[in-house]
Amino acid sequence: MAQLRQDYSEFVSRDVTVVVVGPENAQEFIAYWQKENLPFIGLPDPKASVLKLYGQEVNLFKLGRMPAQVLIDKEGIARFVHYGHSMSDIPSNQEILALVDEINEPK
């Protein structure tokens, strides 16, 4: 999430809504969001409803959910999905922003 916070203004300038989904319950999520003063939306998913919808992997040997990034366009179509194999296996903000620019190019 630190990576997302670092370039959050770049996402906002491209009209991207950042939503972070996590396994915690609502109270834990609110407490963490307030403590860290995160600028984007946090969605608690303790029953893994969103996880199942997007096929995010759970690996108990690696302490839970594996990272996943989904880029959804304004029509609700998933245009990019990355399933990580570890917590450090995520695309850079620059990669995601380049995809956003490509998706939003006039046709």
Question: What is this entry, summarized?
Answer:
With 107 residues, the chain is of the alpha+beta class.
Give structural attributes.
107 residues, alpha+beta, Glutaredoxin, two-stranded parallel sheet, two-stranded antiparallel sheet, 6 strands, globular
Helix count, DSSP H or I runs of 4 or more residues: 5
Distance between the termini: 32 Å
The CATH architecture can be named as: 3-Layer(aba) Sandwich
Residue-averaged pLDDT = 86
| Helix-strand topology string | HHEHEHEEEEH
Quick one: biggest sheet?
2 strands, parallel
Number of strands: 6
Strand content: 15-25%
Q: Would you identify the regions where 5 or more consecutive residues have pLDDT less than 50? A: none
> CATH-wise, what's the superfamily?
Glutaredoxin
Principal-axes geometry comes out as: globular
CATH topology category name? Glutaredoxin
How many structurally independent domains?
Answer: 1
Secondary structure class reads alpha+beta
Radius of gyration, in angstroms, nearest whole number: 14 Å
CATH class: Alpha Beta
Give an overview in words:
It is a single chain. The chain is of the alpha+beta class. It has one domain (2-102): Glutaredoxin, CATH 3.40.30. Helices cover 36% and strands 21% of the residues. The protein contains five helices and six strands. The chain has helices at residues 2-6, 8-13, 26-36, 49-54, 93-103, and strands spanning 19-22, 41-44, 58-59, 64-65, 68-72, 78-83. The protein has a two-stranded parallel sheet. A two-stranded antiparallel ribbon has the order 3-4. A hairpin with a 4-residue loop joins strand 3 (58-59) and strand 4. It starts with a helix and ends with a helix. The mean pLDDT is 86.
